[in-house]
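Title: Prediction job returns without error message
Component: structure pipeline
Severity: low
Priority: P3
Assignee: unassigned

Description:
Job completed but the reporter wants confirmation the result is attached to the right record. Sequence as submitted:
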Amino acid sequence: MPASHDFFVTSDPGTARTRTTDALVRLGYVVDGAEQGGLRATRGNLALTLLLRAWAGGRSFHTRLDVQVMVTRDGRAVVRLLRGPGPSMVTGGVVGIARGNRAFAEAANAIHAAFGQAGELMASVPG
């Protein structure tokens, strides 16, 4: 499973941030601003995940994703989805890793769809 996913889009950075935020919010994430214009998306309950480990089901399993929005020379945006630092292995072992992988793939697919439907996606590259 890739640790990052880059989306090369024709939109400006502000629009890219908004589309990315909207896509993640639809998946149940709470999205906050992060360093250098990035985003931090969290979902689930960390305390419950630490307590129940892999048995914290579905969206109650704590997941964190980070997003960087970069600008190309021509003013277009590159959105990089990153796996956030998280206790997947500690909190759920192999099942926790699988849930983290599934959450990352789900987020990448949602962001891909959001830019694709808007006609702004130039390329989507797992990294």
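Comment from assignee: result matches the submitted record. The radius of gyration is 15 Å.
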